[in-house]
Amino acid sequence: MAAIDVMAQPALSTGSGELLPRVASAAVLAPLALAAAYVGTPVFEGALAAVAGVLAWEWTAMCQSRRPVPVRALLTLAAVGAILAVMAGAPLYATVVIAVGAAAASVVEGGERRAWMAAGAVYIGLPLAACEWLRVSSGHGREIVIWLLIVVWAADTVAYLFGRTFGGPKLAPAISPKKTWAGLAGAAVGAALAGAIVAVALGARDALGLAGMAAIFGLAGQGGDLLESAVKRRFGVKDASQLIPGHGGLFDRLDAFMAVVVFAALARLAGWQGGESW
Known about the structure:
Largest sheet: 2 strands, antiparallel
Structural class: mainly alpha
Radius of gyration: 18 Å
Helix content: over 70%
Number of helices: 9
Mean pLDDT: 90
Strand content: under 5%
Number of domains: 2
Strand order of the largest sheet: 1-2
Order of helices and strands: HHHHHHEEHHH
């Protein structure tokens, strides 16, 4: 579930040697993500399970686990168990599964990294369970997940363009030196525009209302990007991995989306109709 996240790294300044692999990777990954969301069960759950395994691998490597193999398995099992619980219509059990996975990962890891491994279970499992819930809890879950994917991609892209064009004060220089307040504004603008356009294309009844929510989600996505940047800075790594040519790791491509799906799920629980707007 990834596309070109051009805000995180200034690809254009590195020349076509890096830009071309980024574009090629996005051209493959974006349609796959949209296709999985469109098809639904069991393809969607299979895609989420695969993502869980990759994220668990990247997390244990990025956070320098002492016992990466068993901890990686526990993080993956916790996320997959949570996805299956939501799929079975028991979302509350998903939180229990994640909590158990976090506790187990902490015990198995031991030492000074145990809290990080426990956090990994939540960081990975909660967004994937939230994504599954958004897909299956509404008759228009397919539309809302597709809409969220495109909103996040647009937010990242326009944030990068605004940051490069206008520059200005840094947003959080201690965490991510390249991000600016102009980029944050761009995230809201890009998300709102994409939210309105895609909502109309998907036949939404309230495109204007969805555009407003998209702007909020665009800002939430930048918060997710900063959160992952803080973790990487803590452990002194540039990318979560080198899995995706020109992009880095899967975490690097999904950090914004992971924050947005959790925020969207909480918004729905609080009364936002989301998928019912179609």
